[in-house]
Amino acid sequence: MAEEQEGTIEKMMLQKPFKFFDSHGHPGLEKKGILERPGCFDMWAGNTVGARSLMGARAFLGDPNPTKIITKPEELPEFSPETFIQFMDSASIEGMCLQAIHGISDPYPGNEKGWKWYVPNDYVKKTFIDAFPGRFTAVGGIHARYGKEAAVEMVVSAHECGFPGCKFHTPTSGYPNNPDMYPAYEKIVELGMHLQVHTGQEELPGTRAKYQDPVYLDDVAMDFPDLKILQLHCGLFNNPMQALWNVMKFDNTYTDITVPHPTLMHFKYYWDMDHIRFLEFFMPDKVFYGTDFPLTLPVYQTMIDNIMTMPISTEFKHKLMGNNFRKFVNWGS
Ligand SMILES: [Zn+2]
Predict the structure, then answer these.
(1) Residue pLDDT, tens place only, 127-140
(2) How far is it, in rounded angstroms, from Cα 176 to Cα 214?
(3) Cα(134) to centroid of ligand 1, in Å?
(4) Alpha carbons 186 and 224: distance in angstroms, whole number
(5) DSSP secondary structure letters along 53-100
(6) Helix, strand, or coil (residue 254)
């Protein structure tokens, strides 16, 4: 094992072969049937921060005019579950955890009903997990916009699909410590699942930064000591210090280092050597690599290379880049 080598050269050079695991990818943006999944077409269309972020992906996917604003589904580049597999294979990614999503933002000027984002559990199960055995797992979307009981039913739905966890998307669902979510959290514990919660910032329609502050997760972790929590994005651009503290304070709280684009979004807390060393020192077993694919599609390999060439221990690289998350979801068992 590379970890057991004593010499400096061995530590640097014996990193491979290693299969990575991407703990955070987004299904739903596939061209086929995109209008059946509310919110997904909006990611590509219009002159928004999100759509402009995806222009890089469009260029990589062969769009001859990737900066033209998209107005119709026919203008989307070819993008399918096979594209996920193609990029995963090219970057030695064994598996990816997909985020099924369920949420409706607060009302805002121009949209009195709120912006809806919905990628159904059964779509993700059928189109990705069942279609490509051994390559994907997923978390099911949950929120309490339809009430407490509906939130519990969303947990049950994710469990019935065989998913190991659920995701609460704060930008479209509000504070994670909303008491209406608590019966759903009880159900997650009862079913032996985990909870993923978005923290940080988000550029989607109807987004309010206050919901995404990781300080509200402190309440959830306090009130549910048996609930395994994965804090997504580690509070990026919002309150990363609180996010790191949550992981240090609570045995059952973990974090990923996912960024929608490393250069655009989170330079200091992604590429920064001191930050990665901080993670290695304080939480070596509680941090996961993720990518927000397909937003990061143009830099998919580069992001991995960046971490794998950093002067940190090979042991930690392997934990961060796959083994921690495999253990977290009992991958392969
Ligand atoms: Zn994401």
Answers:
(1) 999 999 999 999 99
(2) 9
(3) 21
(4) 8
(5) HTHHHHHHTT-SSTTSPB-SGGGSPP--HHHHHHHHHHTTEEEEEEE-
(6) strand
* Span 32-47, pLDDT tens digits: 999 999 999 999 999 8
The residue among 4 and 117 whose pLDDT is bigger is: 117
How many angstroms is it from 26 CA to the middle of ligand 1?
6
Tens digits of per-residue pLDDT, 229-241? 999 999 988 899 9
pTM above threshold 0.70: yes
* Encoded amino acid at 157, one letter: S
202 C-alpha to ligand 1 centroid (Å): 9
Whether 21 contacts 321, CB under 8 Å: yes
Q: Which residues contact 94 (CB under 8 A, 6 or more apart)?
A: 19, 20, 21, 88, 135, 322
Given a contact cutoff of 8 angstroms between Cβ atoms, the answer to whether 97 and 112 are in contact is no
DSSP annotation of 274 reads H
Residue 329 and residue 97 in contact, taking contact as beta carbons nearer than 8 Å: yes
